[in-house]
Amino acid sequence: MSYATITIGDLLADVNSRYFLPAIQRPYVWKGDQVITLIDSLLKGYPISSLMFWSVDEELKRELKIYNFIEHWKPGMQNPVASVNGRDVTLVLDGQQRITSLLIALRGSFAEKAKHKRRASPDAWSKKTLYIDLLADPDAELEEEDVEFGVSYGLRFHAVAPRNDHRHQWFRVGDMLNHRSPETLDALIEATLGRVHHGVTAYERELITTTLRRLHEVIWSDEVINYYTETSASVDRVLDIFVRANDGGTKLSKSDLLMSLITSKWENRSARDVIFDFVDHINKELPQPNKITKDFVLKSCLVLCGFDVKYNVSNFTQQSIAEIERNWPDIRDALERTFRYLNGLGLNAENLSSLNAVLPIAWFLYHEPGVTLRGTSEIDRHNARAIQRWLINSLLMGVFAGNSDRTISAARKTLKEASQFSRSFPEAQLYHALALGGRMARLDERAVEDLLDLRYNKPRTFLALSLLYDDLDWSGAMHHVDHIIPRARADRRVLMGMNLPEHRISEIMDSVERLGNLQLLPSQENIEKGDLPFESWITGRSDAYRSAHHIPYTPELWTASMLPEFVRSREKLIRERLLALTRLEAAR
Fold first, then answer.
1. Whole-angstrom Cα distance, residue 52 to residue 95?
2. Count of CB atoms within 10 A of residue 76's CB?
3. SS3 at position 557
4. SS3 for 171?
5. Contact between 38 and 105 (Cβ < 8 Å)
6. Which has the closest alpha carbon to 558: 577, 540, 583?
7. Residue 430: which of 445, 446, 451, 413 has the closest Cα?
8. 166-194: string of b/e by CB count within 10 Å (b at 16+)?
């Protein structure tokens, strides 16, 4: 193997015109601190490991899906498809993260989230470029924020050009790309020194000169990029090189490797585009936010198409990939119907504790085309309710926790056998089959007592509360977990004003967050409840409402001072409800 070297400036000049990414590469994952550390390492003269390229001929260029590097990174961004007609193409097998980071640092930008802003907020992210403080002495003691990463040079991302003064002289790192020759570098140094604050010392002026010359050396003089170019036309050989080359660095996930394999064998479009687009669709465009991954989608393909469910490369053969691609429209449809149904139940990224628990539902819908579980027929209502009960029980009991391949296989086998005789979801058969495999999927008395200890703001709390209601999906409205007796009524200062003893105050404050004081309300009703005095709200509820929400008709307990007794009384009703459900399911 023979290696060659090149400067950073010459490398970047050819990125996205000669150097591109193959579909087998994963998305860019580095953070802003890692970009800064890379540039700092180069300025210190540290090696950054070798790169590996693949020179492809015209035939391979037509067969492969090829992508551009990202220059201006923002959250969720995927590499755009490249146009390579009429170009000599060299693909990067090892070095994507480093080259992308160099692009961002010298030619692009990096989006960073402001503190205390929601990720989904449009003003949470700002586009930043990399600057270096020419007055920061790399030999001086590190500032506190630089200690963690060992950054010696004054490198920072800024959304706007920072102000210069007697302590800071900022220079945009990428501007050095415009000063390749020694003459233009000298002119840059002279111009920079002519603009510095009058309080800058002679030593600091020399520091400015030294840092600019060092930055120029790193970009234009020192051939710090060491690379090897593979010329084989064998895709299998290159995939093997790809896996081995990435084994020593940041580990590629199994899905990255599987995606590379599937993409190379997918006939129409790019498997990567198809699956990434679908993940984004489910996560961002359905009624509620979800959090599925490409791993989940690929495993779903194995489960729904009847292949071995173990998530191994060996199960993605040419034959299985061809069948997955052929059935992809139906797979996509079944998964989307599944998550629309789950969102209708209020299950989303916040409280769906196991994606694997969703797979039996997806299998059932895959083999029942057109069923939405939102229909009005008797069979639709029966299936929807049965699936809800089974799923909530499975999530609460952790049936699919840990190594769940055997559980998934057993569930699929049970569903397949039951489908030969009935269109009903085989709730009871699933409980039985999973229990035989050592997975208790149904609540028992001990589990019910554990649920009664749940508190506000825990993912399992929503699941447990959802078992209290006979309505299937509450008309698809988003539901909130609500404190029946408001937390404001159990505030310490309020309780102290009632002259209650300390032990009673502690008991009340503990009770307000318990499951016995929590209910599910549609978002609009929850807002309306908050706008009313609590006494007006609670006394205005009908008998049917209190029955549906398992609120005991004991008005003397509807006060903050009696909250522990209210919670114990309601817990008794909840216990009866959950145990009745358990007996009902056992009898089916």
1. 7
2. 11
3. helix
4. strand
5. yes
6. 540
7. 413
8. eebbbbebbebeebbeeeebeebbeebbe
Contact 112, 126 (CB under 8 A): yes
What sign has the CA pseudo-torsion 324, 329, 332, 333?
negative
Rounded Cα distance, 311 and 303, in Å? 10
Tokens of 498: 């009632």
pLDDT digits (tens, 9 = 90+) for 43-87: 999 998 899 999 998 888 877 778 999 999 988 888 998 999 999
CA 233/CA 164 separation, integer angstroms: 53
Q: Which two tokens stand for residue 279?
A: 């993940």
For 213-217, the CB contacts below 8 A with 24+ separation are 213/185, 213/189, 214/43, 215/43, 215/132, 215/171, 215/173, 215/176, 216/176, 216/179, 216/185
Q: 545: helix, coil or strand?
A: helix
pLDDT tens, position by position, 93-151: 889 999 999 999 999 999 988 776 776 676 778 999 999 999 999 987 655 455 445 78
Q: 113 in helix, strand or coil?
A: strand
User: Which of 117, 211, 124, 208 is CA-nearest to residue 159?
Assistant: 124
pTM for this predicted structure: 0.59
